[in-house]
Amino acid sequence: MSTNSTTATHTPAAIVDEFLRLVMIPDPDGARRYTATSLRIRFTGNREMKDPADTTAFNKARYRWVKKRIERTETVARAVSTGNGDGYGDVVYSLGTLYGEWPDGTPFEGNRYVDRYVVRDGLIEEMDVWNDSAEWLMIRAGLAQP
Questions:
Q1: CATH 3.10.450.50 fits 5-140, yes or no
Q2: pLDDT band at 87 (very low <50, low <70, confident <90, very high)
Q3: What is the enclosing helix (H) or strand (E) of 70?
Q4: Which residue from 26, 43, 101, 128 lies 20 to 30 Å from 49 (Cα-Cα)?
Q5: What is the pTM of this model?
Q6: Which of 26, 38, 31, 25 is nearest to 6 (CA)?
Q7: Where do the structural domains in the chain lie, given as residue ranges?
């Protein structure tokens, strides 16, 4: 995908915020407008994905439903050499908490997350996702202490 008028006029933080809004609907087709064709996604546990639809499928398997409560979005301009191309991209961090329901319908909230994005030429090239879900699932299964 190439830069278009939609992404070219937005800051890297605004691109990430809109991408997340669409992913949480879930609308992976809409979210794809904000990603490079070389998108590289890594979820907690180093689960590799290539498309916003992959994240939607993963979330459907882990949660009945899940949303992000974004507390802040931080940008480090021109900070990193990207793994998907030549040059540098803007690194954007999205920090907040997850809320939703586990597959059995039990509600949860306050599940911390940090997402790291590399945005280059108005498109997301990399997405790394970390959150407390694995720990919380271990506690629910009796495999860890709260």
A1: yes
A2: low
A3: strand 65-81
A4: 101
A5: 0.85
A6: 31
A7: 5-140
